Amino acid sequence: MAAPGPTPFISVPSFWSDLHGAKIRSVGLPSASDEARIVEYDLTGRRLEVSHHRTGRLAGALTVGRTGRLASYRRALQERLAPVVGAGAPATA
């Protein structure tokens, strides 16, 4: 009997880091983008929100001091992965 193949990657990648009191969070693949859009930039408040797009579609997001704002980006990116699950790839919990 053949061994099962690898499970397709169907989750949204993310990372976080705390550096000098700043909470840095990212979802998706910002490095794969061809455009970065600054949504919020507040140097005094130490806040930053940048959405990353590839050919006009959301590819990822990065925030500094705006942790709560990533939930909507994660949902949008996860919805783009949903058709992959429906196309026969096994869903993971």
UniProtKB/TrEMBL annotation:
Pfam families in the record: Reductase_C
Q: Which InterPro entries match?
A: FAD/NAD-linked_Rdtase_dimer_sf, Reductase_C
Question: What highest taxon heads this organism's lineage?
Answer: Bacteria
Q: Where exactly are the transmembrane stretches of this chain?
A: none
Q: Reductase C-terminal domain: from which residue to which, for each copy? A: 15-82
The protein depicted here goes by the name Oxidoreductase C-terminal domain-containing protein
Organism of provenance = Streptomyces huasconensis
Record lineage: Bacteria, Bacillati, Actinomycetota, Actinomycetes, Kitasatosporales
